[in-house]
Structure formats: structure tokens, C-alpha cells
């Protein structure tokens, strides 16, 4: 049965553009797959520790040789990896924070980038192990970073996500960006601003 993993990373909840758009994707996806499962992983409601030397040591220790303490250190990572493995499709809401991804999204990526689980160097070359997955990234940015603009080189969100997920094997990736959300702080009507983005997201969820 189809399973969608829905990730959000904006701390702004009801004011968040990326959350509203990823929510619209999920609603449309559910209407198309009524019997399917959606796994919601709210990164702002998940306690995500930074990786430590002990965590790295545990991740690089062969599974059968891990101590109970090492196994314990990897529990959260194992849970997050199981969600990625179980889902065949991902929708990931990502606000731009200081030209990059929010810290909680980076912490999650650090937890799910695991040797032997999501990537390997088995033959001396990196190989992504998250194969056969389809991902939609929904990005919201205060400014506008379209390729032809002066600010394009400041956008470390899309290139980073494309690179890291590509490295992990997720090459079927679509990036939908709502740029210029700062206008909402200066009187721009929210419904009017969001309408074309909601349309794009819903069409994409529908495979149009
Ligand atoms: C902590 C923080 C840092 C931000 N940094 C940037 C930035 O570097 N560039 C930018 O264009 N907008 C920046 N913004 C604005 C957000 O990208 C914008 O509000 C966007 O809508 C966030 O997505 P969200 O609405 O889903 O939270 C920042 C917002 C916050 C809260």
C-alpha cells in the first residue's frame, strides 16, 4: 500500500507558508489514495540531538558488534530511517533560514545520513541506498532567489537538498518554491499570495 512521509520543519506553524503548502499536498494526495498511509514527522516537535563522537562511533560499528549503549544512541536515527524506508513518497516542507535549511532539518538529515543504511562506499564510490523513492520539496523563502536574479547564489536550500538527497539515492525530486513570502509581512493578502502556489502543489500531488 502507498505510504507518504510528510516532513515539516517550520517553527511558525499556522503562519508558515511551507506547512500550509505541504498540508495541501498531503490533503490532495490522501484524496487520491484514500486507503494509503501518511506518516507525519514534525521536526519542530521532535527532539533531535546533534551528532556526537559517540554517535558517529556507534554508526560506524558493525550492527552485530554494537554495545547496548551504542544501540541506544542510534534509536532515534533507526526510527527516522524506518519511516524513510517504509514510505515510497516524501513531501518535505523547508523554509529558508539564513540562506540555508532550518537547523532542525539539518539535524534530521544528520540523523538519516547513515553509512550502510542510506549510503555506502562499498566499491570505493558513494552509492545512495534510498532508491525508488519520489520526493517533493516545498520551499518558502522571504526573498526571491530565482536563477536569473542577483540573489540566486545566496540560495543554499534547493542546491543543498538536491545534492544531499541525490547522494542518498533520491533522484526523483521536485522542488516547488514559494518565493517572496516577506510580502505577507507588508500587507500582501495571504490568500491571493498562496493561491498560485496551492494550485501548483495540488497539481503536482495529482501528477499533473
Ligand atoms: C530565522 C529565520 C531566518 C530567515 N532567513 C531568511 C533568509 O536568509 N532569506 C530569506 O529570503 N528569508 C529568510 N527568512 C524568511 C523565511 O524564509 C520566510 O518567512 C519563509 O516564509 C519561511 O517559511 P515558513 O513560512 O514555512 O516558515 C527567515 C525567517 C526566519 C524565521
Write the layout of secondary structure elements.
Layout: E1 3-8, H1 17-32, E2 37-42, H2 53-60, H3 68-73, H4 75-86, E3 89-95, H5 103-112, E4 119-120, E5 127-128, E6 134-141, H6 158-167, E7 172-179, H7 190-205
Parallel strand pairs: 1-2, 1-3, 3-6, 6-7
Antiparallel strand pairs: 4-5
Please tell me about this protein's structure.
The protein is an alpha/beta fold and 208 residues long. The chain contains seven helices and seven strands, in the order βαβαααβαβββαβα. It has a single domain, classed as Rossmann fold (3-Layer(aba) Sandwich). 38% of the residues lie in helices and 19% in strands. α6 links the parallel β6 and β7. α1 packs parallel to α7. The radius of gyration is 18 Å and the shape is globular. The protein starts with a strand and ends with a helix. The model has no long low-confidence stretch (mean pLDDT 97). Bound molecules: flavin mononucleotide. The site of flavin mononucleotide has 16 residues, from α1 and β6.
Which key phrases capture this entry?
binds flavin mononucleotide; 208 residues; five-stranded parallel sheet; alpha/beta; 7 helices; Rossmann fold
Amino acid at each position: 500500500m502507498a505510504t507518504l512521509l510528510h516532513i515539516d520543519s517550520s517553527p511558525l506553524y499556522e503562519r508558515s507558508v511551507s506547512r500550509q503548502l505541504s498540508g495541501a499536498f498531503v490533503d490532495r494526495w490522501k484524496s487520491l489514495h484514500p486507503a494509503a498511509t501518511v506518516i507525519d514527522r514534525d521536526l519542530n516537535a521532535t527532539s533531535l540531538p546533534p551528532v556526537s563522537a559517540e554517535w558517529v562511533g556507534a554508526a560506524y560499528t558493525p550492527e552485530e558488534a554494537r554495545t547496548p549503549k551504542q544501540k541506544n544512541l542510534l534509536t532515534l536515527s533507526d526510527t527516522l530511517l524506518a519511516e524513510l524506508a517504509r514510505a515510497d513518497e516524501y513531501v518535505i516542507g523547508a523554509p529558508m533560514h539564513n540562506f540555508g535549511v532550518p537547523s532542525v532539518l539539518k539535524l534530521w538529515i544528520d540523523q538519516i545520513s547513515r553509512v550502510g543504511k542510506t549510503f555506502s562506499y562499498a566499491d570505493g564510490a558513494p552509492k545512495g541506498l534510498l532508491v525508488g523513492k519520489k520526493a517533493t520539496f516545498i520551499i518558502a523563502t522571504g526573498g526571491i532567489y530565482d536563477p536569473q536574479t542577483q540573489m540566486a547564489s545566496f540560495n543554499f536550500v534547493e542546491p543543498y537538498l538536491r545534492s544531499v538527497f541525490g547522494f542518498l539515492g533520491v533522484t526523483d525530486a521536485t522542488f516547488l518554491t514559494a518565493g517572496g513570502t516577506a510580502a505577507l509581512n507588508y500587507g500582501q493578502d495571504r490568500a491571493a499570495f498562496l493561491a498560485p502556489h496551492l494550485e501548483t502543489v495540488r497539481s503536482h500531488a495529482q501528477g499533473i
